[in-house]
Amino acid sequence: MNFGLMYSVSSPSSSSSSTASAALVHRNSRFPMLLPRPICASLKLQCSSAFHVDVSLNSYPAKTHAVSRCSLRLPGEQSLCSQQDDKCAWPLRALVTSTAQDIPITSLIGNEKVGVLLLNLGGPETLDDVQPFLFNLFADPDIIRLPRLFRFLQKPLAQFISVVRAPKSKEGYASIGGGSPLRQITDAQAEALRKSLWEKNVPAKVYVGMRYWHPFTEEAIEQIKRDGITKLVVLPLYPQFSISTSGSSLRLLESIFREDEYLVNMQHTVIPSWYQREGYITAMTNLIEKELLKFDNPEKVVIFFSAHGVPIAYVEEAGDPYKAEMEECVDLIMDELEKRRITNPYTLAYQSRVGPVEWLKPYTDETIIDLGRKGVKRLLAVPISFVSEHIETLEEIDVEYKELALESGIEKWGRVPALGCEPTFISDLADAVIESLPYVGAMAVSNLEARQSLVPLGSVEELLAAYDSKRRELPPPVTVWEWGWTRSAETWNGRAAMLAVLVLLVLEVTTGQGFLHQWGILPLVR
User: Fold this and answer.
1) From the CB of residue 224, how many other CB atoms can be counted at a distance below 10 Å?
2) ω into 104 cis (within 30 of 0)
3) Which among 324, 384, 249 is positioned nearest to 8, based on CA atoms?
4) Which residues of 26-58 are buried (b: 16+ CB within 10 A; e: fewer)?
């Protein structure tokens, strides 16, 4: 995983909701009319309440539909929903509907040249690309953060890790055809988005910028400059914001923008996340409903949402909103399924953990085993944080987790495909771009403190200027080495102490001398 920009979000117990104009999600704006979310009881029932709130932001109204529900709970068991019990006391969720039809496109665009920059992680296209791809990944100081004193070791350490991990990674990529399909799929999404924008009378060009492989973000920026783009919408292809995905890409953009006079003068805005958009939720729900119908008894299928994990320190220490946004996203999808009278039990777990630190729980592999132990026989996997097929879906879910599920007693396995170029999804992304146009070149919010968000909609330079002072007050999300009393620091400091003790014991035993012998704990050797 990777790191990057840091969010500061309100605690789950705060009364917050999300209103939005298309590109701007007011994650912590407060409604005076919000009803408390019902507390889930350990009964086999569904509880729900709903109401509508129409909010006007500037001159562009955005309809927000807030719905409350509880997940199905099996008698005598904890809820299959993996969220903590106090999640049921969270404020109501808000579904953002499109307002693209209300945007005065002609007056906003005029003679400007509009561009859209899609940001994604990137992936090796051949087996020979695997090791250099991994080097780029681990050479990112937001992936492995070293103390200032040791930052000269960043690239040597990245080289060492990439060489060590490359053989195993190559096996994974070989099993899915010899490389990642991410570039091909993202290029197809970019072309589909361009066509959709033109159909909506927005003659925009769409570019793809990958963080760790071709086409690199730097390459996309050079093409944007050659094309003379004057208005740019930056759209990370991650539905939920995380300092490990969208944040890392935006930090790279920061460094690029600050060094280029053309980019400094180019008007642009960023869409930080879009998991609440109605089109996205509808597209995901359509795919889930379609896959459920392939089971012999659809109503008995457990819907298994699997999201890419992040170290828990990102959330608890650095304020990453990823976990909260992911849980809210799952709830919104289940709300939509419930409207269609699909009330299957569901759970959310996190996959792809690496390294010694603790990651978001529950883990996907452990949850699959636990579900099998509880007698679940039908499981539908939903890759909730991925909009494109790549190694985490094609190999980790389709091969590793499917095999684990069958070994754990689950008899029927299904998997919802990634969204790819699903028409409803692409059309909604186009609407999100259109709705962001009024904010190109301007900070979209004046009351930053009220929003409690460190990544408001606005230019990259303004974003970072707005929260750099606060970001420095936050601990780094994960560090390779850190002294102090943070959770990650305790882990590494403890390991260092254990290693030192082991070294001393070995020296004492092999030499027969040392303070343990002098204190009489070990016999002196004559």
Assistant:
1) 22
2) no
3) 324
4) bbbbebeebeebeebeeeeeeeeeeeeeebebe
Contacts of residue 491, Cβ cutoff 8 Å, sequence gap at least 6 = 356, 357, 358
Q: How far apart are CA 379 and CA 370, in angstroms?
A: 12
**Whole-number Å distance between alpha carbons of 70 and 437:** 37
Token pair of 515, please?
């303070």
- Least Cα distance to 250 among 80, 515, 457 occurs for 457
pLDDT at 384: 95
Backbone CA torsion sign across 199, 200, 205, 211:
negative
Identify whether the C-beta of residue 280 lies closer than 8 Å to the C-beta of residue 425. yes
| Token code pair at residue 363 | 């883990």
**Residue bearing tokens 């930052």:** 151
> Tokens in use for 92?
């109501």
Per 3-state DSSP, what percentage of the chain is helix, strand, and coil (rounded to 5)? 45, 15, 40
Residues 251/211, Cβ–Cβ less than 8 Å: no
Across 298-307, 313-322, 437-446, least confident range? 437-446
- Going by pLDDT thresholds of 50, 70 and 90, the confidence category of residue 322 is very high
Q: How far apart are CA 237 and CA 273, in angstroms?
A: 9
Q: Would you state the structure tokens that stand for residue 25, as one six-digit string?
A: 């999600």
Residue with tokens 């199905």: 72
For residues 163 and 157, the answer to whether their CB atoms sit within 8 Å is no
- Residue count of the chain, please give it: 526
Q: Are 229 and 462 in contact (CB under 8 A)?
A: no
Backbone angles phi, psi at 261, to 5 degrees: -65, -35
User: What confidence tens digit (pLDDT) does each residue in 179-212 have?
Assistant: 999 999 999 999 999 999 999 999 999 999 999 9
